[in-house]
């Protein structure tokens, strides 16, 4: 397996993604956890140093342990990772002062081509588009290194010590804006001897085995939301331990139209699982009354969720484990909670609200997977395609699609509008092209005219984005006809809304959800 040492870049996860696409198993660990002992135990076949926001020039800035250079395995340093490698191996790094580079840049080859980059510079123009994002830059490379590519503001854009198999680049090969970045990773993992044989089929068998080992004869409670993640978790567990599993479906009153009935029918009747339908909407909506701060909403919901679980767990004899559909991106995002290097953008529902002491041990069989890998696993497990293909739905549900205070009234309106919108998308055959679509009800009312009367109702915003992994997203380019038709339907069919807008913000700078 491959080790990615995280120095806090916002795009570290994308490195893992690129490697998974190459069927290489890798894990991201924050630099604080990577000690000499850790390295020995992990025994990586290759190591990648991520980027990060720090400056190697600063006292106490993040470092990998020196021993990483003695492992005898290939190392790839990216951005901050390059700088830290140069700094530790005897090179020199200087502060920006007019040489900072953010965004698109072109790298041209210097010296001879380097094995790890073979396939690059193939477009005939002799240059390669890359994505840069750095303030500091390497001013002198370490002994043993040579320069293989240069950009106007990064004279050492691509460097390598071919003998020791240390590679270091100033740009970010993991982002889409470095179109041939995958080639670099491909060559790097091949150089490290990976065969690219990590598949979903193997993952499924391995996961079932691991669950059985971890759980033994104990009873597991699984939080089932009806979303893809928790559904796959439940079916996987059901396959692994059968009746030792009880699913608890917490209805927090923040679900979409008819969602609760659909989930209960599918898992209780179709799959024959033990399923408790916990209707706790009064509790959640009561506690959320008057709360309008997004983080407070998330934390409140996360906390109540755990409370409710504990309550139901305590009623089930010898329940020792709680299963959660935590995904890899959740794990990484949550690193910042334990003092990890990256900045918290939003507290994540699954991990963020989890108290230290909850009396139940955790089973998280999807912890290592990205969303599309979960879908592939769901497919392996025989879940219906319509279910696997569902758009993601966040744990805090409609709460984060209702900016400002949440009321039952607003939620009802939101549910109806959302149902019309999704119906429109399905009717026009656009559902599968879109990563996620939903309505957000805005905390403003506006004046309108219907028939001969004045209306004073809520405005709503339609959101639809395309994305590969939820990390970045583009708004979906609906036709004006579609938008117009949908607005008319919503206003006609949903009492309480008299104005419809379309959100055309991409991520970044926006996020997909409104809160
Ligand atoms: P943002 O809004 O951060 O969302 O761009 C990225 C993706 O994550 C989903 N999301 C969540 N999923 N619990 C979840 O299970 C959460 O707390 C949560 N917050 C956001 C969001 O719907 C989108 O797909």
TrEMBL record:
One of its GO terms (molecular function) is GMP synthase activity. This is GMP synthase [glutamine-hydrolyzing]. Homodimer. CDD domains: GATase1_GMP_Synthase, GMP_synthase_C. Residues 198-390 form the GMPS ATP-PPase domain. The keyword Membrane does not apply. The active site is at residues 79, 172, 174. ATP binds at residues 225-231. PROSITE patterns: GATASE_TYPE_1, GMPS_ATP_PPASE. Catalyzes the synthesis of GMP from XMP. It comes from the Bacteria. SUPFAM superfamilies: Adenine nucleotide alpha hydrolases-like, Class I glutamine amidotransferase-like, GMP synthetase C-terminal dimerisation domain. It catalyses: XMP + L-glutamine + ATP + H2O = GMP + L-glutamate + AMP + diphosphate + 2 H(+). Keywords: ATP-binding, Glutamine amidotransferase, GMP biosynthesis, Ligase, Nucleotide-binding, Purine biosynthesis.
